[in-house]
Write a structure and sequence with these properties.
mainly alpha; globular
Length: 497
């Protein structure tokens, strides 16, 4: 088959991808790869694999162009490195993905992918500068710019910067409303507008926005309407926290999210249910069962909520929606020495760390084989071997617990109602965070200067300024004026400007 005919096939597969014919596209991709396609076609093939969620396949296609050995990244084009980094990101190998992007950090290709890596870590603040550079780049077309602006809008919403969010929102709505081909982007925009209105407790306005969003997204895949239904249920709950119909609607959204394996929707539903009904027990369970510092920082800065104390966490891994009936696996009673091999202990710790989102291949590999690069040809089998060894151990030491790999997710399985129990504690603070926390208790919520901080903590002015620099970057404090007499205040609740 000639290069021209293969390019024609790739163009046809692109059309089929847009039509959602994933299995057919992947079958044809395998056929092309068996015939050793020329290297210039590999990026296009990898991009197709990536778009059809075959991320390990995309990595295999590009691996010969990326690494000449396991310890060194070969010279490759920004396009190739970006596709490779994107595929690594989707399997959860975030650190290695970031390393790939560092090779092309000044290129436009790296900006959007880099922002998505920050999204995956809940570090929306760090994504914003990348997205601003991306949308201002002269190397992207108009559609790419609009996509970048929507993601920038989402980042501002996530960080509570509602003034900036509304500024972008109004511009985008005017563009999308005038062009019927932008129905998906318009629906996304209207959904984000509803999120802003929910954050401002304008639940009636949010419901109107979601009705408009539903009309725009009516012919889109199920996950888009899932998000609309989620925010509609949350808005209804905000209007009437004890309304049984609102509770039922939210429960149905959770069931739909479980079927679609949309784990973050489950977490979001539980969080807003706990927040709006003032269910502190559920709220603490969510925070204790969510291991991402970026998530905790966002909940603290937006809603003023944090983990209040050390406590026992119990949940059902077989069904995150089920209520625990019997403890089947007590992590506090298991020691590293009781597991028969070197990978089962970190695997057990990892698989029970997040009560909502199961880890993916790249996450598991990075945890089990630290400081190694992911090899798409050998690493998956090494991980599967570790899972096999864990399951062999679990047969004799747990009540029917085992790990199942399904559609890239590593699921801890157990009979319904059988739970995992462990003692969770607040994450240890860095020294500067501990110092700032002590000062906050002494300060009684007043504005303060760097000299005030230095005096209370008994440190130098320079050390106080270093603490404040870190506190500003992590949104713990904000400046209320500038210059020689600069003063600061602690954030309390949502940041609105």
């Amino acid at each position: 088959m000639s290069k021209t005919s293969k390019e024609q096939i790739i163009a046809e597969l692109d059309v089929l991808t847009k039509q959602g014919q994933k299995q057919h596209v992947l079958k044809e991709l395998i056929k092309i790869l068996k015939n050793s396609p020329p290297k210039p076609l590999l990026p296009q093939l990898a991009r197709l694999a990536n778009r059809n969620h075959a991320y390990v396949l995309a990595l295999r296609i590009l691996h010969p162009l990326i690494r000449d050995d396991r310890e060194q990244i070969s010279e490759a084009s920004p396009e190739v490195l970006n596709i490779y980094a994107t595929s690594l990101m989707w399997i959860g190998a975030l650190e290695e993905s970031h390393q790939c992007l560092q090779r092309i950090k000044l290129s436009t290709e790296a900006l959007l992918t880099g922002a998505f890596i920050h999204f995956a870590r809940w570090n929306y603040h760090n994504a914003i500068p990348l997205l601003i550079k991306y949308v201002n780049s002269s190397q992207i077309d108009n559609y790419q710019k609009l996509v970048g602006q929507i993601n920038l809008l989402a980042a501002f919403v996530a960080t509570g910067n509602l003034k900036q969010a509304r500024s972008i929102l109004e511009t985008l709505l005017s563009v999308f409303s005038e062009n019927p081909s932008y129905k998906l982007l318009l629906g996304n925009c209207l959904e984000l507008r509803a999120q802003i209105e929910i954050l401002e407790n304008s639940y009636d306005k949010a419901l109107l926005s979601l009705t408009e969003a539903e009309r725009s997204l009516a012919d889109q895949p199920g996950r888009y309407l899932l998000y609309v239904n989620k925010w509609r249920s949350i808005a209804q709950l905000g209007l009437s926290p004890q309304d049984s119909e609102a509770h039922s609607a939210l429960a149905q959204v959770k069931q739909d999210a479980l079927k679609l394996r949309n784990w973050e929707t489950l977490r979001d539903c539980d969080f807003h249910l706990a927040r709006l009904t003032q269910n502190n027990t559920l709220l603490q369970r969510i925070l204790l069962g969510t291991p991402y510092q970026g998530y905790h920082d966002r909940i603290q800065s937006t809603f003023g909520i944090t983990v209040t104390e050390s406590r026992n966490l119990e949940y059902c891994p077989g069904d995150v929606l089920a209520k625990p009936r019997l403890i089947g696996l007590d992590l506090d009673s298991i020691s590293e020495n009781s597991l028969l091999n070197s990978t089962s202990w970190p695997l057990l710790q990892l698989i029970t760390r997040d009560i909502y989102r199961p880890p993916r291949m790249g996450v598991v590999f990075s945890e089990l084989y630290k400081n190694e690069y992911f090899n798409p040809f050998t690493s998956p089998q090494r991980v599967r071997n570790s899972v096999f060894r864990f399951n062999e151990w679990a047969k004799d030491h747990t009540n029917s617990f085992h790990i199942k790999i399904s559609q890239g997710d590593f699921l801890l399985m157990a009979p319904i109602g059988l739970s995992v129990s462990s003692t969770r504690r607040e994450r240890p603070l860095d020294s500067w965070q501990a110092a700032l926390k002590f000062f906050k208790l002494q300060n009684n919520s007043r504005s303060f200067t760097s000299s005030d901080l230095a005096k209370v903590l008994g440190i130098t002015q320079r050390s106080a300024l270093n603490i404040l620099k870190k506190a500003l970057a992590s949104r713990k404090v904000q400046k209320i004026n500038r210059g020689k007499n600069c003063r600061y205040i602690f954030f309390s609740g949502r940041r609105t400007g």
